[in-house]
Amino acid sequence: MEAKKILLIEDEVKLARFVELELKYEGYDVTVIHDGREGLETFSNEEFDMILLDLMLPGLSGIEICRRIRKTSSVPIIMLTAKDEVMDKVAGLDSGADDYLTKPFAIEELLARMRVAFKHCSNHQEEGTKKILTVNHLSINIEKCMVTVNDTEVELTKKEFELLLYLVQNKNIVLTREQILNQVWGYSYIGETNVVDVYIRYLRSKVDEAFGEKFIHTIRGVGYYVKEE
């Protein structure tokens, strides 16, 4: 089996070297870039299976790199950063990152998150065989990553789309915040579940409130579900 190609964009040289050596030891093919603009250019010119992306970079920020990549690619992206504030995590995930790892981290945790992200990506590709999902007046075209309500397209970020897709795939089933974190974000830190509530609010404003139809329901103290009438 051909080694998976990893693009590591990280300006801390010693950390980048450490991660590079560990990933190569695990059998990955690793390309290391220390500058944001150069990293984006490298991605544009080559094919990669995953990006490990620092948030604070010279030349171009990790957030901006992530946004630009998401316009053309769904490659798994894991943010690596010293920032640990919830809104920093939300900003990273909202820009299209699949997961978020705060420095300092154990290499075993990074490897575990990479496995989850690869599995998540593979699951989405398998789900692509079911091209259209519907619930009430809402429709999800998985292949085109497009959501419509009453035939009107709804603009969602990548993470909002994945959250709504997971809820619709499990319609009429109450999903806990921990389940949603594991499936949509790929991590389950205790105390970090408020990011789910933030994204539920985003979805409700764009779907429920915008169209005057209640799709997403709350079971207080338990979690959320999409109800099919």
How would you describe this protein?
The chain is α/β, with parallel strands linked by helices. It is built from 8 helices and 12 strands. Strands 2-1-3-4-5 form a 5-stranded parallel beta sheet, with helices on both faces. A 4-stranded antiparallel beta sheet has the order 6-7-8-9, with helices on one face. A hairpin with a 2-residue loop joins strand 8 (146-149) and strand 9. Helix 6 crosses helix 7 (177-185) and helix 6 crosses helix 8.
Write the SSE topology.
Layout: E1 5-9, H1 13-25, E2 29-33, H2 36-45, E3 50-54, H3 62-70, E4 77-81, H4 86-94, E5 99-102, H5 107-127, E6 132-135, E7 138-141, E8 146-149, E9 152-154, H6 158-169, E10 175-176, H7 177-185, H8 194-211, E11 216-219, E12 223-226
Parallel strand pairs: 1-2, 1-3, 3-4, 4-5
Antiparallel strand pairs: 6-7, 7-8, 8-9, 10-12, 11-12
Brief rundown of the structure:
By secondary structure, this protein is an alpha/beta fold.
Write down the overall mean pLDDT.
Answer: 86
Structural classification: alpha/beta
State the separation between the terminal residues, measured CA to CA. 47 Å
Number of helices: 8
Strand content: 15-25%
Instruction: Give the strand order, joined by hyphens, for the main sheet.
Output: 2-1-3-4-5
Rg from Cα: 18 Å
Shape category = elongated
| Number of beta strands | 12
How is the main sheet built? 5 strands, parallel
Relative helix content: 40-55%
Report low-confidence residues grouped into runs of 5 or more: none
Spell the H/E element sequence.
EHEHEHEHEHEEEEHEHHEE
